[in-house]
């Protein structure tokens, strides 16, 4: 190591920040070089002057008060924000819960009649639906339902002539333990099928509309008894051309 | 939760507030402006409190606080588009120039004999007049007694840079001190 190399390291040497190899080389050089011993002594002196305790300035008292007050404000703001977050989260949770409860109240019980009724309708259209009674007289079909004696509500067969549909006949059908009084109507090769059934659980709210493929179901309701009209007509057409005329 | 927070604040105040003088000193040297230093100190403490949960107990709190301070200074000057006193790209040449002049003029470091005659105020002037990058590292290592590693962390630079900047800062200081000593007739040309 020469003087120039040592002068680059003298500060780090005094700070004890040289690697062991560098420190060994530096000590070796300083031992033999008066100039570098001087440089080292100078560095020790400058370093000591810089480190004098009086170099550390006292923070003015008002500054400490200012910082403590600012910390208190920050803490209060943080706590308030946390409270707001918690309150917000609680409100959101309460809202979600209320919405879920409301939905569960509003949501119809599973409309488990849709698929069986859709099935019946397709068998009607396919000409495979076996009628108990073939009649164009709603009263006769009603008597059949009453005579069967298996319904806990008075039989009623809708007269759809006002809408241009004639009664073809009807049958009693059971699907999954639920009994349906089924009436079949026809107009120029198009069918409307009416299923009347007991729905105490209000699973089929009045005005409900369901669609399965080509088939759509329109729910009319009187108390616990549902009359579900099934058709392939577009919903708006059916409402205008059929339901509006039935009153 | 509130109890944990209260405990955190108590710990912060008990450990960080006593270091305020040191942080304030560093802020003063970096800004060379009292009101700016006071603002900087307050911002440092607020930020430190916000992140105090991330401070690892048993490590150097002074170094941690100073790192926050230095980061704030860097961001602030960067935001203002100025870095007062920072070394311009060409400044290294000036430093070498001064050092060469010193080396030529001083066979056996006459400043050694002169330093005792200099009052603290003059050391202070020499220190405050160092360009920012040199002043920043001297404040960390000499005044605040941080290790080279801690200083490198605070400055966001490699340890080798700390070492080279310290060496160059010393030579600049000696040039200034030598000039001061000569001005007071303590050394002759």
Structure commentary:
The complex is a heterodimer of chains A (247) and B (189). With 247 residues, chain A is α+β, with helices and mostly antiparallel strands. Chain A has seven helices and seven strands, in the order αααααβαββββββα. A seven-stranded antiparallel beta sheet of chain A has the order 1-2-3-4-7-6-5, with helices on both faces. In chain A, a hairpin with a 2-residue loop joins strand 3 (178-187) and strand 4 (190-198). In chain A, helix 2 (20-32) crosses helix 3 (34-50). Chain A is rod-shaped and about 130 Å long. Chain B is an all-alpha fold and 189 residues long. Chain B is 73% helix and 0% strand. Chain B has helices spanning 2-16, 20-31, 34-50, 61-80, 91-105, 111-115, 120-128, 132-143, 148-155, 159-183. Chain B is elongated. Classes of the chains: A alpha+beta (247), B mainly alpha (189). The A-B interface holds A 7-12, 15, 17, 34-35, 38-39, 41-43, 45-47, 49-52, 54-60, 63-64, 66-68, 70-71, 74-75, 78-79, 82 and B 1-2, 5, 9, 12-13, 17, 20-22, 24-25, 28, 38, 41-42, 45-46, 49-50, 108-109, 111-112, 115-116, 120, 123-124, 127, 138, 141-143, 145, 147-148, 163-164, 166-167, 170, 173-174, 177.
Q: What average pLDDT do the residues of chain B reach?
A: 78
Biggest chain pair interface: A-B, 41 and 45 residues
Question: Which regions of chain B have little confidence, pLDDT < 50, spanning 5+ residues?
Answer: 83-113
Distance between the termini of chain A: 112 Å
User: What is the number of E strands of chain A?
Assistant: 7
Radius of gyration of chain A: 47 Å
Uncertain ranges of chain A: none
Note the main sheet of chain B: none
Q: Helix count of chain B?
A: 10
Residues in helices of chain B, as a percent range: over 70%
Helix and strand element order of chain A: HHHHHEHEEEEEEH
- CA-based gyration radius of chain B: 19 Å
Instruction: Characterize the main sheet of chain A.
Output: 7 strands, antiparallel
Sheet with the most strands: spatial strand order of chain A: 1-2-3-4-7-6-5
């Amino acid at each position: 190591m020469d003087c120039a190399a040592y002068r680059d390291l003298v500060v780090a040497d005094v700070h004890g920040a040289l690697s062991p190899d560098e420190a060994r080389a530096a000590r070796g050089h300083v031992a033999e070089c008066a100039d570098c011993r001087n440089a080292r002594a100078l560095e020790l002196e400058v370093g000591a002057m810089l480190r004098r305790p009086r170099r550390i300035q006292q923070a003015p008292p008002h500054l400490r008060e200012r910082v403590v007050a600012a910390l208190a404000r920050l803490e209060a703001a943080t706590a308030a924000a946390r409270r707001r977050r918690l309150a917000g989260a609680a409100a959101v949770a309460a809202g979600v819960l209320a919405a879920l409860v409301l939905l569960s109240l509003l949501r119809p019980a599973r409309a488990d009649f849709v698929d069986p009724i859709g099935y019946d309708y397709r068998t009607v259209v396919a000409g495979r639906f076996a009628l108990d009674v073939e009649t164009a007289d709603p009263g006769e079909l009603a008597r059949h339902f009453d005579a069967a004696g298996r319904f806990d509500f008075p039989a009623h067969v809708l007269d759809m002539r006002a809408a241009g549909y004639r009664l073809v006949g009807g049958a009693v059908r059971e699907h999954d333990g639920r009994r349906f009084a089924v009436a079949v109507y026809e107009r120029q090769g198009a069918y409307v099928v009416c299923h009347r059934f007991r729905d105490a659980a209000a699973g089929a709210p009045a005005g409900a509309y369901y669609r399965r493929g080509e088939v759509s179901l329109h729910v009319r309701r009187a108390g616990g008894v549902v009359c579900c009209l099934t058709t392939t007509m577009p919903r708006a057409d059916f409402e205008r051309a059929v339901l509006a005329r039935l009153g | 939760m509130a109890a944990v927070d209260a405990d955190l604040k108590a710990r912060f105040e008990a450990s960080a507030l006593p270091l305020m003088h040191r942080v304030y000193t560093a802020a003063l040297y970096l800004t060379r402006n009292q009101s700016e230093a006071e603002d900087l100190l307050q911002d440092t403490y607020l930020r430190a409190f916000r992140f105090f949960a991330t401070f690892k107990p048993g490590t150097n709190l002074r170094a941690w606080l100073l790192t926050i301070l230095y980061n704030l200074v860097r961001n602030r000057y960067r935001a203002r588009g100025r870095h007062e006193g920072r070394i311009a790209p060409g400044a290294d040449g000036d430093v070498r120039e001064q050092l060469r002049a010193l080396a030529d003029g001083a066979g056996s470091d006459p400043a050694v004999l002169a330093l005792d005659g200099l009052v603290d105020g003059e050391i202070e002037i020499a220190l405050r007049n160092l360009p920012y990058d040199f002043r920043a590292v001297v404040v960390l290592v000499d005044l605040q007694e941080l290790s080279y590693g801690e200083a490198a962390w605070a400055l966001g630079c490699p340890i080798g840079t700390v070492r080279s900047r310290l060496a160059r800062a010393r030579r600049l200081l000696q040039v200034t001190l030598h000039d001061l000593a000569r001005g007071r007739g303590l050394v002759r040309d």
